[in-house]
Amino acid sequence: MRTRSARRTTWTVAAAATLTAGVLISAPGAGHAAGTSHTADTGRAADTGRAAGTSRIAGPSHTAGSPDPALASEPGSPKTVSSGWSIPWGLSWLPDGSALLTERDTFKVYTLTQGGTKRQIGEVPNVVTTGGEGGLLSIAVSPSWKSDHYVYVMHTAADGNRIARMTFDGSALSDYKVLVDGIKKSTYHNGGRIKFGPDGYLYATTGDAQSPGLAQDKTSLNGKILRMAPDGTPAPGNPFHSLVYSYGHRNPQGITWDAEGRLWEGELGDSKYDELNLVEPGKNYGWPACEGGCSTTGMTDPKRQWPVAEASPSAVAYADGAIYMAALRGERLWRIPVAGTTAGTPKAYYTNDYGRLRTVESVPGTKSLWLTTTNADNNGDGEAGSDKVFRIDLM
What we know:
Elements: H1 4-21, E1 79-85, E2 88-93, E3 99-103, E4 108-112, E5 118-123, E6 136-141, H2 145-148, E7 150-157, E8 160-168, E9 173-183, E10 194-196, E11 202-205, E12 224-228, E13 244-247, E14 251-257, E15 263-268, E16 273-279, E17 304-307, E18 313-319, E19 322-327, E20 333-339, E21 342-343, E22 347-349, E23 357-362, E24 368-373, E25 387-393
Antiparallel strand pairs: 1-25, 2-3, 3-4, 4-5, 6-7, 7-8, 8-9, 10-11, 11-12, 12-13, 14-15, 15-16, 16-17, 18-19, 19-20, 20-21, 20-22, 23-24, 24-25
């Protein structure tokens, strides 16, 4: 395995060559350039037969001409809340301000207080790994947890990816119940983020399971954002009278809502561009015909896009006027100011300082974030127990 420093050198040279060649912006109607898919956390080297399509590359991350909302605050220096983790993937807040965190490959769930006290509360049953990115992924605390004590998990099982509900009584996990199954799994592209939206419904991101055509199949649960009632049934008002809320996604791993309740999504692209999308019900976000901006009729362009070496985004979070996006291969935290439906110029923080950044969440009632690393995963250089949880105050 190459060292991280070697990988960084390779990416830096490649990025410089790309910029020099002037291929970050191509004319409308240009096809995808030929090339080998990269091997960041999504298993892009394993992608074969990527569908061709007419696409327009909308430009690098710092596209000129977009208005930037006023900079309300910027992230300060990360402070370690807790160490000794192995691929912490999901994070959701309890009413007392502590968090539930999952570990992808151990299938364990922990509580973690603001002061750094960590306690295992159980393991999720029926979880399997895939030798790539499957396992115990995201977790979401019920908005009514004080009365129902429900928590929700998304994970890989023997027969595919599923969403399940468990009970957490403040002491231990119990009462596992499957709510949604039939989501195809693969070594990579399992999506996996679940969160409750401001409307009280549960949203889930699903990958294309390395079968790109599924993203355009509205009868499939793959390559989608799903929206459901707390019992796993389709939420009222869904555009196709099913769980499907939006489609045409490749491997989305991040969702968040801004102060006006708009849904934003971070998505891992193939070999060219990763995306930040503003998601609306029933819209088609292009994959596999498009990667990044697209001139194909009926497909929705991202609000921002990044060369894959600069991003490979997992979680996104909204705080104080901006979207924060954790980058895996890019090993940095992106801040993207938003105002209405406009996403301003992105700015990167902590580039190469802490390795692969997996999950970022805003801390309720504060101007701060929690940020996790996953350097112990199969694309990182860390050993088991090498990952950390950081707190970042917005200054």
